[in-house]
Amino acid sequence: MFNFAVRDFVSSSVRFRLRRSHRVFTGALASAVICAAVFASSLGLAGQAEVDATYKDIKQTLGKVPGFLHQVSKAALPGAWAEVKALQFSNETALPPKVKALISLAVSAQIPCRYCIWEDTENAKRAGATKDEIEEAVAIAAVARHWSTIFNGMQVDFETFKKELGGDAQATPPAK
Known about the structure:
8 helices, disordered N terminus
């Protein structure tokens, strides 16, 4: 089944007389799609066991498994949950929960994602953020978006910008 799809995909590329580099890219893309499909189809019981373990961990962490998590791809769920749990839910990272929630809220307001905005606002409140801190986080996001629009829209030269604002950012040691 996959061989037919790849052969048809590659032959259609030849029909359009794509340059050699495009044919190589097409072959690589087709191979990647096939590998992903084979991997996804081989999840079988081991994959289901991992998904079941993930649902169990979610329930243990949150007290329940929210319905939307059942809509997440079974192949993606374990990794997505591990990332959220290790970074966003952990108290053992460089940023405290309140700061993480405020950053997430600021980004969510820019995307915009109403689901994220609501959840991030609630998380920020639970983590001790005040109304003023929540408002300021969103205002900072708005300022960053404003100036990004100006810099990019006016095509401000990046090298000149760095020099005018204090030199080469690459040479500046990271903050501790």
